[in-house]
Design a protein that fits this description.
196 residues, 5 strands, alpha/beta
């Protein structure tokens, strides 16, 4: 419909971006929404808006709440717990976990890697732990000295009830994100609670 001389013509640039481009034209790129604008100065004769007092500089923001460590149980008999733990580690690494994020703890006989590395002496063994660049294996005798890691895998491959309780309790504290327990579900639930 043609415009009558009384109607002002609105320039295209003032019409804003188009949802669909007009024939033969490319669509304008939407602009980002601007952030909050400063408050306008009060007009003469009117009181200005009240603003809350600025936050005190010495107040520290509260850290975000940490998510609870997830616990996964892999049912396995005592003589198969070490194999189940090894499979869990392989799956973790295959899914993109960095080796230095994983700690493996046994409640009974030490993992062969632990025994091998301890043959070079305690200092060399703990230097590998402190470097934190590879999967680290420990047994009940060394669990109290372990540092936290994102993932802790526990193999309930034997040991006394006291050893299992100690290892599971410390492993739960050391696991930042995920605790995987390979063993008898009844034994695990007796220590960690029925919520596992």
């Amino acid at each position: 419909m043609p415009l009558s001389p009384e109607e002002p013509q609105i320039p295209e640039s003032a019409q804003g971006p188009r949802a669909t481009p007009a024939a033969g034209r490319s669509a304008q790129t939407p602009r980002p929404v601007p952030g909050p604008r400063p408050a306008a100065p009060p007009r003469p004769g009117r009181p200005g808006p009240t603003r809350p007092a600025p936050a005190q500089r010495d107040q520290q923001p509260k850290p975000p709440a940490q998510a609870a460590t997830q616990i996964q149980l892999i049912p396995a008999p005592a003589d198969g717990a070490l194999d189940a733990a090894e499979e869990a580690v392989d799956l973790l690494l295959d899914s993109g976990r960095v080796p230095g994020e994983v700690l493996v703890v046994t409640t009974g006989e030490a993992h062969p890697w632990t025994a091998h590395e301890l043959s070079f002496g305690e200092a060399a063994y703990w230097a590998q732990h402190d470097a934190g660049d590879d999967v680290f294996y420990a047994d009940f005798a060394h669990v109290a000295r372990l540092a936290s890691r994102p993932v802790v895998v526990v193999a309930l491959n034997g040991g006394t009830d006291s050893a299992v309780t100690t290892v599971l309790s410390l492993a739960r504290e050391r696991a930042n994100t995920l605790l995987i327990v390979c063993g008898d579900p009844q034994r695990v639930n007796a220590v960690l609670g029925a919520g596992v």
